[in-house]
Amino acid sequence: MRVVHVASEVFPFSRSGGLGDVLGALPAVQAQQGAQVTVVSPWYAALAGTPVELWRDELAQIGVVRVGQLQQDGVQFLFIGLEEFDRPGLYHDDDVWRFTRFGRAVLPVLAKLGILPDVLHGHDWQAGLVVAHAHDLRWSTAFTVHNLQYQGRWNLAESAAWTGLGPEWFSPERAEFYGDLNLMKAGLVGADHVTTVSPQYAREITTREYGEGLEGVLVRLSLEGRLSGILNGLDQERWDPRTDPDVPPYADLTGKAAATKALRAEFALDEAPILGVVSRLAGQKGMDLLIEALPELVQDWNVVVLGGGDPLLTAALQGWAQHARVSFAEGMNEALAHRIYAGANAFAMPSRFEPCGLSQMIAMRYGTLPVVRETGGLVDTVPEDIGFRFAEATPQALAQACRQANATFQDRPAWTARSERGMALDFSWTGPARQYLELYERLAARDHSGSQEGQ
Questions:
Q1: 290-339 pLDDT tens trace
Q2: Do you know which Pfam families this protein is assigned to (predicted)?
Q3: Which of 153, 162, 140 is nearest to 183 (CA)?
Q4: Which is it for the CA torsion 285, 286, 288, 294, positive or negative?
Q5: Cis peptide before 172 (omega within 30 of 0)
């Protein structure tokens, strides 16, 4: 099975969140399972690692394109270099333009390099245009929604000429969305099959509450049997308390005590249990709910927060950090994240929606019990006999769940039993990777000789 993944980021070369983590782990496991895997991503100026330049040429309608290659874990990584990506950082205000340019370059580059996949797998809106062009070539395609909230929209009259798509695409049945080009919709409509990163999220996005205006398209896909959820896995080598270089290594809860002691010393915390948070500071993640609940949380917990994002939420946490039981580290710090996962007793994720989430899996692997809202992948991954779940996206519901967690913490045998069950869960990529390969086999076996008009 020859597979090409297309995504805007891939760990460890480029990463802003869970998408990069998935592309850093899934392809390697698929390669171990016998697939021939290529990952295509932009060649960012700040790319971690130095690709070997394979090719540099001028493509019609695109201009000068560079292609770099790296081989790692049995996977071929191709990085497409365009002048629009020669700037610091990954994402910018003109990303629809930048990823339209990237999207138009992918298939010509694959053709130049003689790469013809059995299945092309696009990830999120940044790969939506690639899937649309692959659809027109009658390739077998899969498309994964990692977060439906971000859709890649731009005024259609201005952007249509950028895409290289035929006029049939610029209708409400295809990529037009209330007068805009919508690259997420292009991927949804163009793909043979759409997946999301958890079964629960696949159900949720067919509703008005979670469908982000695309629920009509998604209901149709669901009714046609072309929408499903495959739960993300976790890179269990990267996240392993027995071998983690950033924490005192441990294999059981006796060893975890040293990590908790170290975190307590690092932030000068008192003897109250520690509630950890590692998150983007955003409304989606419910960080405003956490802040509103802090007056009650600090009665029982030390709260340690690592994250960056919304300036208002950042400022609120900076203010709260003056409190003896609240610690806040701004930005993302990989080593500190590991220390929080290992050292905290509980871990809060009050998300308004959560397509899958990795933090709750990491926390349980490190013996830290998650306190989560019942949404998306949090429902699929946090058993009620391990973590603490709450239904409403309110500070009161979060505080109540944390009170329940604290009461359980006082019953050490009960807490220990929950923690040990969490550490024993298998969140490896082996099962999900196999599910994707089985999906690819079905898609590759389909007859693409006829038109897929109206999908």
A1: 999 999 999 999 999 999 999 999 999 999 999 999 999 999 899 999 99
A2: Glyco_trans_1_4, Glyco_transf_5
A3: 153
A4: negative
A5: no
